[in-house]
Design brief:
- The protein is of the alpha/beta class.
- The chain has two domains: about 1-125, 3-Layer(aba) Sandwich (Rossmann fold), CATH 3.40.50.720; about 150-310, Dihydrodipicolinate Reductase, domain 2 (2-Layer Sandwich), CATH 3.30.360.
- It has helices at about 10-25, 40-45, 85-90, 105-115, 150-165, 195, 210-220, 255-265, 310-325, and strands at about 1-5, 25-35, 60, 70-75, 95, 125-130, 145, 170-180, 200-205, 225-235, 240-250, 270-275, 290-295, 300-305.
- Strands 3-2-1-4-5-7-6 form a seven-stranded parallel beta sheet.
- The longest helix has 17 residues, at about 150-165.
- The chain is globular and about 60 Å long.
């Protein structure tokens, strides 16, 4: 049994972390730490969870206990830098749901986030926790950089193609769409229902912070070709939908590619290969990533869908926790015994 500390647990992802803590058989207790919300009770913040969680008072981030075994950090960019180094120094396990440790390069982080990185030595002593990618082992790490929601959907869609047919890829272009919960709880005019209803808009064109995160992973497969990444807001609360267009140097048979995807994800409980492009409604409130591949001559179209708060944040964080401790990845995610069902 382990004890959990949740630093910054008052937001949407914090709520999901609390729910998963209450359903995990190996978590004995958890404590939530906050800033503006310190002193409030969880039942005040999340009245819909009364009866489904252990109610307790939120502690101040100034009084974080060193008694927990693992810490989830769900804070805005730059804030995790205040806590992670000391936790790691005290041999604690940490899963950061923000972007402070996702990039391997200090200069890249400072370029994209406009924040000076104060613990750059940890950037190469962490694991990038794309949980359904089995190319890395967790046993030698205490720090997990939980991937962003857009990178999770995009990378799970394209990595098998990159791994199996990387030499044939000429260019990659992703158009991705997010529900408004991806922007957090802070009120913003452009996210009001009166602004978003019936509306779609692109944002952070050519400058989204998840772009270098995706490209960093692709380069580890030798990718050095044109890449574009364009994000959009959808008039929905939850979900990420990514459509990636890949241009090949030569034609590859569709079934050959699909067979490789099936092999790549044969050990994954949370990736479902679909016969048709997925719908957001299929994955919302789940930890699944649904993927479809369509091939026509030299063009591969990959569509992928996830719940941004679960698969794109707290659910994947729990997968990573389970991997850190060598447990079944399904634990706490209410999908015990689930198996990958290929639709191909």
């Amino acid at each position: 049994m382990i004890s959990i500390g949740i630093i910054g647990g008052s937001g949407y992802t914090g709520k999901k972390l609390i729910q998963f803590c209450n359903s995990h058989p190996f978590i004995s207790d958890y404590k939530v730490y906050g800033n503006k919300t310190s002193g409030q009770f969880l039942s005040e913040l999340f009245p819909e969870l009364v009866g489904q969680m252990t109610d307790s008072q939120i502690e101040s981030v100034d009084n974080i206990s060193n008694s927990h075994d693992l810490y989830f950090i769900a804070l805005p960019h730059g804030e995790a830098l205040k806590y992670v180094p000391s936790l790691i120094k005290n041999d604690k396990k940490v899963i950061d749901l923000g972007g402070d440790y996702r990039l391997d390069s200090k200069s890249e982080y400072e370029k994209w986030y406009n924040i000076q990185h104060s613990s750059a030595e940890l950037l190469n002593n962490k694991i990038y926790g794309l949980a359904d990618y089995y190319g890395t082992q967790y046993s030698n790490y205490n720090l997990v950089a939980n991937p962003g929601c857009y990178p999770t959907a995009t990378l799970l869609g394209i990595l098998p193609l990159m791994a199996g047919f990387g030499d044939e890829i000429f260019s990659v272009s992703t158009s991705a769409y997010s529900g408004t919960s991806g922007a957090g709880k802070t009120p913003k005019q452009e996210l009001m229902m009166s602004e978003m209803d019936g509306n779609v808009s692109a944002y952070n064109v050519n400058k989204h912070r998840h772009q270098p995160e995706i490209l960093q992973m692709l380069k580890k497969f030798g990718f050095d070709s044109p890449f574009s990444f364009t994000t959009h807001l959808l008039p929905v609360a939850v979900g990420i939908y990514a459509t990636t267009s890949v241009h090949l140097k030569n034609s590859i048979d569709e079934q050959t590619i699909k067979n490789y995807y099936k092999l790549f994800y044969e050990n994954s409980n949370f990736v479902r290969l679909r016969e048709v492009p997925p719908q957001l409604s299929w994955v919302v409130n789940t930890n699944y990533c649904d993927i479809n591949i369509s091939v026509k001559e030299k063009v591969v179209i990959i569509t992928s869908a996830i719940d941004n708060l679960i698969k794109g944040a707290s659910g994947q964080a729990f997968q990573n926790m389970n991997k850190l401790f060598g447990w079944d990845e399904n634990l706490g995610l209410k999908l015990q015994g689930a198996k990958n069902v290929s639709m191909y």
